[in-house]
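[Meeting: bench + compute handoff]

Bench side (C.D.) handed over the final construct sequence. Compute side (W.E.) agreed to return the predicted structure before the next meeting so the bench team could plan truncations. Sequence as handed over:
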Amino acid sequence: MKRFALGFLKILAGFIVLIVCLYVILYFVYGGTYTVNRTVAQDPSIPHISANGATFHAETFGSDTNQVVIVLHGGPGNDYRYLLDLKRLSESYFVVFYDQRGTGLSPRVPKEELTVENMVEDLHAIVKYYGKGQKVNIIGHSWGGMLASAYMGRYPETIHKLVLAEPGPLTPSFAKQYEPKVDVNWALIKHVAKCYFQSLHVEEIDDQAQADYFFAAFATDTTISDHPLRGYFCDNNIRNANFAHWRFSGVTSYQLMMQGMQGEKENMNFVKGIENFENKILFLAGDCDVLIGPDFQREQRKLFKQTELVVIPQAGHMMFSDQPEACIHAVTTYFEE
């Protein structure tokens, strides 16, 4: 028995030594200079506002005498850079972009602050800041559509027109239907390892820099043929994606979405109070998206009183950059009704 135990301990010790050696080797193999962008916290010259006790990277385009349009980016954890084609609306509207709490170039915050409740109240503070007592128009894309729906249920009286562009699951039942396929294979394992070891070399300008690098490097690598996000894009090809961004937030993504999608789907409810909104809502969907595209949105729109669905041809989930003219035409037609 003692001889068996001693042999087992030797094998275990050898395995541990092997793992440690492999870790050290990979650490140096993927050594280099890797960075993330500085936020307002490190660079106060970045345009920003303060609202609801937080600071937000924000920009506006157009005349502030026009109707306000507030654009909500997706993720959660992305930023608004990929949506900047919507600046074209500034010919007729006062267009507001902001990076949500803890994302993009907005300062990082403790994970405890990253709640749907805070995001809704942040949006309300921004609506009041720019709306100045008048109703505003809101465009929410992906996670931003989920946030817009939750906000509309809480503050319907502040919204004139609402665009939900491929919102993610709005209720627990839709969350259970949304199951992106993840093929765990050797290529994916190598990719995750590469992203992880690269992130260890990121300059720690704040306590989330390494996590942000890892999240962005993993999600936006277009060289992986079996990428888990490929179903969002035309021809199931991740290379058709527009991942333009300043800085992703891995912590925000995990806190707001991944926890809900991994065992806490009962928390994925973004439709409380929506019956109090009387105006028609515009749904947009890209015809290439097989995950939360036209079929998924046809079912979700039934949750609301009045809706219209416009399917954008030859567009995936990133429809505003895939087909900006078609999207802007649909939005302006709806706004002008």
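W.E. noted at the follow-up: The first strand starts at residue 48 and ends at 51. C.D. will use this when planning the next construct.
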